């Protein structure tokens, strides 16, 4: 019989690696009150690999002037990129899960 354990607090997605560890997705939060997510972090719990994707995208005008840049808040795009990285890493990582204390 397989038992399931609860995900750690703040984990929004989890991928199982071929070695049996997990790649967890969490939001990186600001120090503001209330805290706001500024990035999505994908972190392997079996090896040191991690990938952070910002929720903000900077778009430059065709003229290339700094004054014409626009910053957009796009958390869905960051989540999608973090999920793609996590899935690819989980498919190849053979690190064993870290033992619990």
Q: What does this protein structure show overall?
A:
With 101 residues, the chain is an alpha+beta fold. It has one domain (11-92). It has one helix spanning 75-92; strands at 11-16, 22-29, 37-44, 50-54, 56-59, 70-73. The strands form 2 sheets. It has a 4-stranded antiparallel sheet, covered by helices on one side. A two-stranded antiparallel ribbon has the order 5-6. The longest helix has 18 residues, at 75-92.
Brief synopsis:
The protein is an alpha+beta fold and 101 residues long.
How many helices in DSSP terms?
A: 1
> What value does the Rg take, in angstroms?
17 Å
H/E element string? EEEEEEH
Tally of structural domains: 1
How far apart lie the N and C ends? 24 Å
Q: What is the molecular shape?
A: elongated
Query: Average pLDDT across residues?
Result: 90
Number of strands: 6
**Beta-strand share of residues:** 25-35%
Report the uncertain regions.
none
Largest sheet: 4 strands, antiparallel
Helix content: 10-25%
**Widest sheet: strand order?**
1-2-3-4
Structural class from helices and strands? alpha+beta
